[in-house]
Design goal:
By secondary structure, the protein is of the alpha+beta class. The chain is 50% helix and 15% strand. A hairpin with a 5-residue loop joins strand 12 and strand 13.
Length: 622
């Protein structure tokens, strides 16, 4: 099956995010592109949401989050390849515009950036653990079989050596050496010292007592350690002579950071993690039904703002400390609730397009646990299904908390991952998921949705725009050069006014600029012709050279994309005129009003030398 081409999609996204120059960095999670931008005012969220292939756009956690769906990885790859936007680059991502960021947003953004690249491996390994639990429960495998032991190693290896995975992603986030970070993680998991912890040995470092901690599956210690490493490495690079940097910096970093982590960072981080886990457990223990209901009810909002993976450290700490997690178990039925609400829309609607979209989103949510397409594409769009899903998510959360269900690994709840929850409270968890799914579906079908909402839900600014009233429009010269009469163009379509009235220009250089404010409405792949729509109702066509389509884009450096808003004077295309001339082609640039008949008259200014931005002609409204 041929791989889908996302070139046009990513170019439109790049244009409406403010261009590559407005993006500090980008990374992606399971369903969305997460942009760190310099100036949010340059981001056109409305146009981004209107792009085919974009489900929704959210500004949260200091990021512009463009929700794509499960194929976000392919879109991300195309974005990096075709737009000049750079992948997340640690501190560079935080340099930005120097705004003081909310501490919670900064924390969530950092955690998401560190965990996002590892999630696929963690979810895959978690599902494999669930399958193994099911197979051993059914008696198909036993824990002493070689098959089981090898597959369990595949499933548990990710979690056992999680600090090493996080060392890499944290090093990328904090812009420090990945291999030095790995060396620190390796020291934390070194067999001799893990055995010392298990055996309760008393160790000292330079006569300083060492508080041994179990770093297997830990999260917080390695993240903090790599952050400190990034600062240490920068300091050493500043003071270290160039000739010894290559070996002295790694030597000092490892020698300093490993003892520092064992003596200070690890014990403090472990204590903080234990307090966090104990606080969460205590909260649920006070009244599990109320705590479960509130968590379940609020979880759709947390997912909506893309903050759910910010809770991963709590989940991993729960697993490391207690051997199981209940947080993602309590909130897990939300996936089923949103899937059910989307199923209700699918069953109720007679609209073909909505039926296809809701069916796909419902399947994605219930089978893979990916709820963003369901939330942004369906339930949140029509509001009532979202609220219904949230209520049933709360009811299910209360049931799960009351029965004490949990999971021994990180899982995203779906039909395929249900075996991973086998254990205490499993039956209650299944009942909660069933209530969330079928309850949301039935309630949405009965009173949560009707096809009348398809129109009622459309906001006035999102409805199809009325044809713009034609107004006077002044157009400027798009180039530095000589303006000539359109009749002098050596092409009948232009010289005889077939394509509209206007003027032509013999360019002095290759900088072709916007002659007015407007939106790029047409752009040939070769870059030789550009259409601009203006708010005054004019449709402008700029044709760069004659027969230049034959160059197939050679010599044309296009600076804009379809859908991009431009201001007068903005650079549209940078043309290498020598390439055009060497090909024996005419460099004349006609500029016409394609909808000339919609105006009473086109008044052309005096011919002669013009600078880009000087008045060229005037469209008189009827």
């Amino acid at each position: 099956m041929a791989k889908k081409n996302y070139d046009d999609l990513v170019k439109q996204i790049a244009a409406n995010i403010g261009g590559a120059e407005n993006v500090n960095s980008v990374f992606h999670c399971a369903t969305r592109l997460r942009f760190k931008v310099k100036d949010t005012n340059k981001v056109d969220k409305k146009r981004l949401e209107q792009i085919s292939g974009v489900i929704s756009v959210i500004e949260s956690g200091g990021q512009i989050q463009v929700v794509i769906g499960t194929h976000v990885g392919d879109v991300y790859a195309a974005l990096l390849e075709h737009t000049g936007i750079k992948a997340q680059d640690g501190d560079a991502a935080d340099a930005g515009n120097g705004e003081k960021k909310n501490l919670v947003n900064t924390f969530m953004e950092t955690v998401s950036g560190i965990f996002a690249p590892v999630l696929a491996a963690m979810c895959g390994a978690g599902m494999l653990k669930g399958i193994l639990i099911l197979l051993t429960t059914l008696g198909v495998l036993s824990t002493d079989m070689g098959t089981y032991r090898i597959l369990y190693a595949a499933a548990d290896g990710v979690f056992t050596f999680l600090p090493m995975f996080l060392a890499i992603t944290a090093a990328r986030k904090f812009k420090t050496s990945e291999f030095i970070a790995l060396a620190i993680a390796g020291a934390l998991l070194y067999p001799d010292l893990t055995a010392a912890f298990s055996g309760g040995e008393a160790l000292t470092f330079c006569k300083i007592p060492v508080v041994l901690v179990n770093y297997t599956s830990s999260v917080i210690p390695i993240i903090i350690s790599v952050y400190v490493l990034s600062k240490l490495e920068k300091f050493l690079k500043k003071i270290m002579p160039e000739m010894i940097k290559s070996f002295m910096i790694p030597l000092l970093c490892i020698t300093i950071m490993v003892p520092a982590t064992y003596l200070v960072i690890g014990p403090i981080a472990d204590t903080a993690g234990n307090l966090l886990a104990a606080g969460y457990t205590g909260l649920v223990g006070l009244n599990p039904i109320i705590a479960g209901f509130v968590l379940g009810l609020l979880w759709p909002l947390i997912v909506m703002f893309g903050l759910h993976w910010g809770f991963a450290p709590i989940v991993m700490n729960n697993i490391a400390k207690y051997g199981r997690d209940t947080l993602f178990t309590i909130t897990g039925p939300n996936n089923m609730a949103q899937a059910g609400a989307t199923l209700g829309v699918f069953l109720k609607t007679k609209n073909r397009e909505l039926k296809a979209l809701s069916g796909s989103a419902a399947i994605s949510a219930v089978l893979a646990g990916i709820t963003e397409p369901a939330i942004y594409g369906i339930t949140l769009k029509y509001k009532k299904p979202f609220y219904i899903g949230a209520v049933f998510s709360g009811i299910a959360g209360a049931i799960v908390a009351a029965c004490g269900a949990g999971a021994p690994t990180l899982l995203s709840t779906s039909i395929l991952t249900l075996p991973g929850y086998i254990g205490k409270g499993f039956v209650g968890f299944l009942i909660a998921c069933a209530i969330a799914y079928f309850g949301s579906a039935i309630a949405t079908f009965l009173f949560g949705f009707s096809d009348d909402m398809i129109l009622d839900n459309t906001k006035p600014e999102e409805k199809e725009a009325e044809p713009a009233e034609k107004m006077d429009q002044e157009l400027m010269s798009p180039v530095n050069g000589t303006m000539i009469d359109l009749s002098e163009v050596k092409d009948d379509a232009f010289s005889k006014g077939v394509l509209g009235k206007g003027a032509a220009f013999i360019p002095a250089d290759g900088k072709v600029c916007a002659p007015c404010d407007g939106t790029i409405s047409a752009l040939y792949p070769t870059g030789h012709a550009i259409g601009i729509s203006t708010t005054q109702g004019a449709e402008i066509l700029i044709h760069i050279g004659m027969d230049t389509v034959s160059l197939e884009g050679k010599g044309f450096d296009v600076k804009v994309a379809i859908g991009q808003e431009v201001k007068v004077g903005d650079l549209l295309v940078d043309v290498d005129l020598d390439v055009v001339k060497d090909a024996g082609l005419d460099t004349t640039i006609p500029m016409v009003v394609a909808n000339t008949d919609d105006f009473a008259d086109i008044k052309v200014a005096a011919q002669g030398e013009k600078k880009a931005g000087e008045a060229a002609f005037y469209c008189v409204a009827k």
